[in-house]
Amino acid sequence: MRDSGQPEQDRILRSMELHSVDEEVDVTPAIMQKVRQIHRKKHGRNDGNWKKTLMIAMLTAILILSSLSVYASHYLIQIKNKEGEVILSTIKPWKYSESEYNAKRVKETEEELRKRLKPGEQAVFYIKDLHMTPLVKEQPLNYFYMLTKHSNYQELAKEIEDKGAPVLQEPEFVPKGYRFDYGQIQIRNNPVWGTPEYETLLNELKEQAEKSDVEQGLFYKIVPWFKIASTGMEYRKGEYRIKMVAFAREKGSKAGVPTNQAIKIKVKGKEMILSASPSSPSRSLTWLSDNEEVLYIIKDDPKDPLSKDEFAKIAAGLVSE
Q1: CA 100 → CA 14, 124, 130, distances in Å?
Q2: What pTM did the predictor assign?
Protein backbone atom coordinates (compact mmCIF):
# COMPACT_ATOMS: atom_id res chain seq x y z
CA MET A 1 0.00 0.00 0.00
CA ARG A 2 1.03 3.56 -0.53
CA ASP A 3 2.69 5.39 2.38
CA SER A 4 0.39 7.64 4.39
CA GLY A 5 0.47 11.38 3.74
CA GLN A 6 -1.46 14.27 2.28
CA PRO A 7 -2.75 13.43 -1.24
CA GLU A 8 -2.22 16.97 -2.52
CA GLN A 9 1.36 17.02 -1.28
CA ASP A 10 2.00 13.64 -2.88
CA ARG A 11 0.70 14.82 -6.24
CA ILE A 12 2.96 17.89 -6.09
CA LEU A 13 6.00 15.86 -5.10
CA ARG A 14 5.34 13.29 -7.83
CA SER A 15 5.40 16.04 -10.42
CA MET A 16 8.85 17.20 -9.30
CA GLU A 17 12.14 15.67 -10.43
CA LEU A 18 15.27 15.31 -8.32
CA HIS A 19 17.65 16.18 -11.13
CA SER A 20 20.70 15.95 -8.91
CA VAL A 21 20.40 12.18 -8.48
CA ASP A 22 19.68 11.60 -12.16
CA GLU A 23 22.74 13.40 -13.52
CA GLU A 24 25.15 11.14 -15.37
CA VAL A 25 28.70 10.99 -14.03
CA ASP A 26 31.21 10.13 -16.71
CA VAL A 27 34.20 8.39 -15.14
CA THR A 28 35.57 7.01 -18.39
CA PRO A 29 38.36 9.64 -18.83
CA ALA A 30 39.69 9.03 -15.33
CA ILE A 31 39.66 5.27 -15.77
CA MET A 32 41.35 5.41 -19.18
CA GLN A 33 43.98 7.80 -17.77
CA LYS A 34 44.75 5.21 -15.08
CA VAL A 35 45.12 2.47 -17.69
CA ARG A 36 47.46 4.63 -19.81
CA GLN A 37 49.65 5.31 -16.75
CA ILE A 38 49.91 1.61 -16.15
CA HIS A 39 50.79 1.06 -19.81
CA ARG A 40 53.59 3.66 -19.65
CA LYS A 41 55.03 2.10 -16.49
CA LYS A 42 54.99 -1.44 -17.82
CA HIS A 43 58.53 -1.10 -19.27
CA GLY A 44 61.05 -2.17 -16.70
CA ARG A 45 58.59 -4.41 -14.93
CA ASN A 46 58.08 -8.04 -15.63
CA ASP A 47 55.07 -9.00 -17.74
CA GLY A 48 53.38 -10.83 -14.87
CA ASN A 49 53.34 -7.77 -12.59
CA TRP A 50 52.02 -5.58 -15.43
CA LYS A 51 49.14 -7.95 -16.13
CA LYS A 52 48.37 -8.15 -12.43
CA THR A 53 48.34 -4.35 -12.11
CA LEU A 54 46.14 -4.00 -15.20
CA MET A 55 43.70 -6.56 -13.83
CA ILE A 56 43.46 -4.62 -10.55
CA ALA A 57 42.78 -1.40 -12.47
CA MET A 58 40.04 -3.06 -14.53
CA LEU A 59 38.40 -4.53 -11.44
CA THR A 60 38.57 -1.12 -9.77
CA ALA A 61 36.86 0.43 -12.79
CA ILE A 62 34.09 -2.18 -12.66
CA LEU A 63 33.56 -1.54 -8.94
CA ILE A 64 33.40 2.24 -9.51
CA LEU A 65 30.83 1.88 -12.29
CA SER A 66 28.78 -0.58 -10.24
CA SER A 67 28.79 1.72 -7.24
CA LEU A 68 27.67 4.66 -9.35
CA SER A 69 24.85 2.59 -10.85
CA VAL A 70 23.63 1.55 -7.40
CA TYR A 71 23.89 5.13 -6.18
CA ALA A 72 21.83 6.42 -9.12
CA SER A 73 18.99 3.92 -8.63
CA HIS A 74 18.94 3.52 -4.83
CA TYR A 75 19.35 6.65 -2.80
CA LEU A 76 18.11 7.85 0.54
CA ILE A 77 18.21 11.42 1.78
CA GLN A 78 17.00 12.29 5.25
CA ILE A 79 16.67 15.62 7.02
CA LYS A 80 16.51 15.57 10.80
CA ASN A 81 15.46 18.14 13.35
CA LYS A 82 17.50 19.17 16.39
CA GLU A 83 16.12 16.22 18.34
CA GLY A 84 17.45 13.79 15.71
CA GLU A 85 14.01 12.90 14.34
CA VAL A 86 13.59 12.44 10.59
CA ILE A 87 11.23 15.16 9.39
CA LEU A 88 11.81 14.95 5.63
CA SER A 89 13.11 12.15 3.45
CA THR A 90 13.11 10.85 -0.11
CA ILE A 91 10.62 8.08 -0.91
CA LYS A 92 10.13 5.70 -3.80
CA PRO A 93 8.36 7.26 -6.80
CA TRP A 94 4.57 6.68 -6.92
CA LYS A 95 4.04 4.15 -9.69
CA TYR A 96 0.28 4.58 -10.20
CA SER A 97 -1.77 7.36 -11.73
CA GLU A 98 -4.81 8.41 -9.72
CA SER A 99 -7.25 6.50 -11.94
CA GLU A 100 -5.05 3.40 -11.84
CA TYR A 101 -4.85 3.59 -8.07
CA ASN A 102 -8.63 3.90 -7.75
CA ALA A 103 -9.19 0.92 -10.04
CA LYS A 104 -6.57 -1.09 -8.15
CA ARG A 105 -8.21 -0.42 -4.78
CA VAL A 106 -11.70 -1.30 -6.06
CA LYS A 107 -10.39 -4.53 -7.60
CA GLU A 108 -8.64 -5.49 -4.37
CA THR A 109 -11.82 -4.79 -2.43
CA GLU A 110 -13.98 -6.88 -4.75
CA GLU A 111 -11.54 -9.79 -4.45
CA GLU A 112 -11.88 -9.57 -0.68
CA LEU A 113 -15.67 -9.52 -0.92
CA ARG A 114 -15.61 -12.64 -3.10
CA LYS A 115 -14.18 -14.45 -0.09
CA ARG A 116 -16.83 -13.13 2.30
CA LEU A 117 -20.09 -13.18 0.33
CA LYS A 118 -22.25 -16.15 -0.61
CA PRO A 119 -23.53 -16.63 -4.17
CA GLY A 120 -26.57 -14.42 -4.73
CA GLU A 121 -25.65 -11.87 -2.02
CA GLN A 122 -25.12 -8.18 -2.69
CA ALA A 123 -22.99 -5.80 -0.62
CA VAL A 124 -22.64 -2.04 -0.64
CA PHE A 125 -19.10 -1.06 0.33
CA TYR A 126 -17.08 1.98 1.32
CA ILE A 127 -13.29 2.19 0.96
CA LYS A 128 -11.47 4.23 3.58
CA ASP A 129 -8.37 5.55 1.85
CA LEU A 130 -7.01 9.11 1.88
CA HIS A 131 -5.42 8.57 -1.51
CA MET A 132 -8.68 8.01 -3.38
CA THR A 133 -9.33 10.97 -5.68
CA PRO A 134 -12.02 13.62 -5.07
CA LEU A 135 -14.10 12.25 -7.97
CA VAL A 136 -14.39 8.90 -6.22
CA LYS A 137 -15.15 10.64 -2.93
CA GLU A 138 -18.15 12.35 -4.54
CA GLN A 139 -19.71 8.93 -5.19
CA PRO A 140 -18.01 6.84 -2.51
CA LEU A 141 -20.34 3.83 -2.35
CA ASN A 142 -19.92 0.84 -4.62
CA TYR A 143 -21.99 -2.29 -5.07
CA PHE A 144 -20.80 -5.84 -5.49
CA TYR A 145 -23.05 -8.74 -6.38
CA MET A 146 -21.78 -12.30 -5.95
CA LEU A 147 -22.87 -13.93 -9.17
CA THR A 148 -23.94 -17.55 -9.35
CA LYS A 149 -22.42 -19.20 -12.40
CA HIS A 150 -24.48 -22.15 -13.58
CA SER A 151 -22.65 -24.89 -15.45
CA ASN A 152 -25.82 -26.22 -17.11
CA TYR A 153 -29.01 -24.72 -18.47
CA GLN A 154 -31.30 -26.56 -16.03
CA GLU A 155 -29.77 -24.72 -13.05
CA LEU A 156 -30.01 -21.40 -14.87
CA ALA A 157 -33.68 -22.03 -15.73
CA LYS A 158 -34.44 -22.66 -12.06
CA GLU A 159 -32.91 -19.33 -10.98
CA ILE A 160 -34.77 -17.55 -13.80
CA GLU A 161 -38.03 -18.91 -12.39
CA ASP A 162 -37.13 -18.24 -8.74
CA LYS A 163 -36.11 -14.61 -9.32
CA GLY A 164 -38.47 -13.72 -12.15
CA ALA A 165 -35.52 -12.89 -14.40
CA PRO A 166 -35.91 -12.27 -18.16
CA VAL A 167 -36.55 -15.62 -19.81
CA LEU A 168 -33.73 -16.86 -22.00
CA GLN A 169 -34.67 -20.17 -23.54
CA GLU A 170 -32.19 -22.87 -24.42
CA PRO A 171 -31.58 -22.51 -28.16
CA GLU A 172 -32.56 -25.41 -30.38
CA PHE A 173 -29.60 -24.72 -32.67
CA VAL A 174 -25.99 -23.70 -32.16
CA PRO A 175 -23.18 -24.18 -34.68
CA LYS A 176 -21.35 -27.51 -34.61
CA GLY A 177 -18.82 -27.82 -31.79
CA TYR A 178 -20.40 -25.24 -29.46
CA ARG A 179 -21.50 -26.37 -26.01
CA PHE A 180 -23.19 -24.63 -23.06
CA ASP A 181 -20.41 -23.07 -20.96
CA TYR A 182 -22.22 -21.13 -18.21
CA GLY A 183 -25.23 -18.97 -17.45
CA GLN A 184 -25.80 -16.24 -14.89
CA ILE A 185 -28.27 -13.61 -13.70
CA GLN A 186 -27.17 -10.04 -13.00
CA ILE A 187 -29.06 -7.68 -10.68
CA ARG A 188 -29.52 -3.91 -10.85
CA ASN A 189 -27.86 -1.96 -8.05
CA ASN A 190 -30.22 -0.10 -5.74
CA PRO A 191 -30.60 2.46 -4.20
CA VAL A 192 -29.09 4.84 -6.71
CA TRP A 193 -26.73 7.70 -5.95
CA GLY A 194 -28.32 10.83 -4.50
CA THR A 195 -31.40 9.18 -2.99
CA PRO A 196 -32.20 9.31 0.76
CA GLU A 197 -31.59 5.55 0.96
CA TYR A 198 -28.11 6.03 -0.53
CA GLU A 199 -27.27 8.80 1.94
CA THR A 200 -28.42 6.64 4.88
CA LEU A 201 -26.13 3.80 3.81
CA LEU A 202 -23.25 6.20 3.20
CA ASN A 203 -23.55 7.83 6.63
CA GLU A 204 -23.69 4.44 8.34
CA LEU A 205 -20.54 3.12 6.65
CA LYS A 206 -18.64 6.41 6.97
CA GLU A 207 -19.35 6.45 10.69
CA GLN A 208 -17.90 2.96 11.02
CA ALA A 209 -14.82 4.03 9.04
CA GLU A 210 -14.25 7.16 11.12
CA LYS A 211 -14.39 5.16 14.35
CA SER A 212 -11.78 2.73 13.01
CA ASP A 213 -8.07 3.36 13.56
CA VAL A 214 -7.05 1.77 10.24
CA GLU A 215 -5.82 4.14 7.54
CA GLN A 216 -6.98 1.92 4.68
CA GLY A 217 -9.93 -0.35 5.18
CA LEU A 218 -13.07 -1.96 3.76
CA PHE A 219 -16.49 -1.31 5.29
CA TYR A 220 -19.53 -3.01 3.82
CA LYS A 221 -23.09 -4.09 4.47
CA ILE A 222 -25.16 -6.90 2.94
CA VAL A 223 -28.17 -5.33 1.23
CA PRO A 224 -31.05 -6.95 -0.68
CA TRP A 225 -31.33 -6.67 -4.43
CA PHE A 226 -34.53 -5.18 -5.84
CA LYS A 227 -34.45 -5.58 -9.61
CA ILE A 228 -33.02 -8.01 -12.13
CA ALA A 229 -30.86 -6.48 -14.83
CA SER A 230 -30.28 -9.39 -17.20
CA THR A 231 -30.03 -13.10 -17.88
CA GLY A 232 -27.02 -14.25 -19.87
CA MET A 233 -25.35 -17.40 -21.12
CA GLU A 234 -22.35 -18.34 -23.19
CA TYR A 235 -21.70 -21.23 -25.53
CA ARG A 236 -18.11 -22.22 -26.13
CA LYS A 237 -16.06 -24.05 -28.75
CA GLY A 238 -12.43 -24.08 -27.63
CA GLU A 239 -11.44 -20.42 -27.39
CA TYR A 240 -14.48 -19.24 -29.38
CA ARG A 241 -17.63 -17.96 -27.66
CA ILE A 242 -21.21 -17.04 -28.56
CA LYS A 243 -22.97 -14.77 -26.04
CA MET A 244 -26.73 -14.48 -25.55
CA VAL A 245 -28.25 -11.89 -23.20
CA ALA A 246 -31.79 -10.86 -22.27
CA PHE A 247 -31.94 -7.37 -20.70
CA ALA A 248 -34.90 -6.24 -18.58
CA ARG A 249 -36.13 -2.78 -19.63
CA GLU A 250 -38.91 -0.28 -19.08
CA LYS A 251 -41.72 -0.58 -21.59
CA GLY A 252 -42.17 2.50 -23.75
CA SER A 253 -38.53 3.63 -23.71
CA LYS A 254 -36.67 3.66 -27.00
CA ALA A 255 -33.80 1.22 -27.54
CA GLY A 256 -30.80 2.07 -29.72
CA VAL A 257 -28.27 -0.11 -31.53
CA PRO A 258 -24.91 1.70 -31.99
CA THR A 259 -23.69 0.77 -35.46
CA ASN A 260 -22.33 2.02 -38.78
CA GLN A 261 -23.42 -1.08 -40.71
CA ALA A 262 -26.70 -2.94 -40.27
CA ILE A 263 -29.42 -4.87 -42.04
CA LYS A 264 -32.94 -5.89 -41.02
CA ILE A 265 -33.89 -9.56 -40.96
CA LYS A 266 -37.08 -11.35 -39.96
CA VAL A 267 -37.21 -14.52 -37.83
CA LYS A 268 -40.57 -16.16 -37.07
CA GLY A 269 -42.26 -12.93 -38.06
CA LYS A 270 -40.11 -10.92 -35.62
CA GLU A 271 -38.06 -8.03 -37.05
CA MET A 272 -34.44 -7.93 -35.90
CA ILE A 273 -31.31 -5.84 -36.54
CA LEU A 274 -28.05 -7.55 -37.52
CA SER A 275 -25.30 -4.99 -36.97
CA ALA A 276 -21.58 -4.33 -36.79
CA SER A 277 -19.83 -1.51 -34.97
CA PRO A 278 -16.29 -0.07 -35.11
CA SER A 279 -16.25 -0.03 -31.30
CA SER A 280 -16.70 -3.82 -31.07
CA PRO A 281 -15.16 -6.63 -33.15
CA SER A 282 -18.25 -8.78 -32.60
CA ARG A 283 -21.45 -8.56 -34.63
CA SER A 284 -24.83 -8.48 -32.91
CA LEU A 285 -28.38 -9.56 -33.60
CA THR A 286 -30.83 -7.45 -31.57
CA TRP A 287 -34.61 -7.52 -31.09
CA LEU A 288 -37.36 -6.75 -28.57
CA SER A 289 -39.87 -9.11 -27.01
CA ASP A 290 -43.54 -8.75 -27.96
CA ASN A 291 -44.30 -6.87 -24.73
CA GLU A 292 -41.18 -4.68 -25.28
CA GLU A 293 -39.95 -5.43 -21.75
CA VAL A 294 -36.96 -7.57 -22.77
CA LEU A 295 -34.13 -6.68 -25.15
CA TYR A 296 -32.36 -9.70 -26.66
CA ILE A 297 -28.83 -9.68 -28.07
CA ILE A 298 -26.75 -12.45 -29.66
CA LYS A 299 -23.04 -11.74 -30.16
CA ASP A 300 -20.67 -13.85 -32.23
CA ASP A 301 -16.92 -14.33 -31.87
CA PRO A 302 -14.90 -12.23 -34.36
CA LYS A 303 -12.44 -15.11 -34.69
CA ASP A 304 -15.27 -17.48 -35.63
CA PRO A 305 -17.99 -15.25 -37.13
CA LEU A 306 -21.54 -16.49 -37.64
CA SER A 307 -23.32 -16.32 -40.98
CA LYS A 308 -26.64 -14.49 -41.28
CA ASP A 309 -28.44 -17.85 -41.43
CA GLU A 310 -26.67 -19.07 -38.27
CA PHE A 311 -27.69 -15.91 -36.40
CA ALA A 312 -31.27 -16.47 -37.54
CA LYS A 313 -31.32 -20.15 -36.54
CA ILE A 314 -30.04 -19.38 -33.03
CA ALA A 315 -32.58 -16.57 -32.61
CA ALA A 316 -35.43 -18.83 -33.76
CA GLY A 317 -34.89 -20.97 -30.66
CA LEU A 318 -35.04 -17.92 -28.37
CA VAL A 319 -38.19 -16.35 -29.78
CA SER A 320 -41.30 -17.27 -27.82
CA GLU A 321 -44.14 -18.80 -29.81
Answers
A1: 15, 22, 15
A2: 0.62
